[in-house]
Amino acid sequence: MGRTDSGERLIAAPPAAVYGALLDPAALEVWLPPDGMRGRIERWDPRPGGGFRMVLTYLDPTGGPGKTSDATDAVEVGFADLVPPERVVQRAVFEAGDPAYAGTMTMTWHLAATGGGTEVTVTATDVPPGIDRADHEAGIASSLANLASYVETAG
């Protein structure tokens, strides 16, 4: 059993808007990359059993922080479960030669309606040991802030 990392944020938008941003490839390219990265979706199949491939590029690759190359993290993401507008479950596998990044990490995005919008909780289970917990949780928080900005300004 691997490690679990998580994050949460109240987003001032209805669950349907947040769910839509989780399943729109153009939106994902904008909000999913944490600060210091940009993303590109290379394949897209939004259904249970489908998925996508995303390449995340470090804006400053000094020191070679990437898992796939000095400047990139490539990840294959499968959709394990889609329950509109409440939950998206993804299974992510990083393309990396280092066994510390091997394995399948499950990301569960849970959306709950509140009086002020949507409480979004992200839980990452079976996080590969090569991913630093503090960095990962900071990345989750950054992605959630980007998601909030994206859907709050779109509405």
TrEMBL record:
Superkingdom field: Bacteria
Stated family: Belongs to the AHA1 family.
Domain Activator of Hsp90 ATPase homologue 1/2-like C-terminal: from-to ranges: 12-152
UniProt-recorded name of the protein: SRPBCC family protein
Organism of provenance: Streptomyces zingiberis
Lineage: Bacteria, Bacillati, Actinomycetota, Actinomycetes, Kitasatosporales
Family matches, as SUPFAM superfamilies: Bet v1-like (SSF55961)
Residues spanning the membrane: none
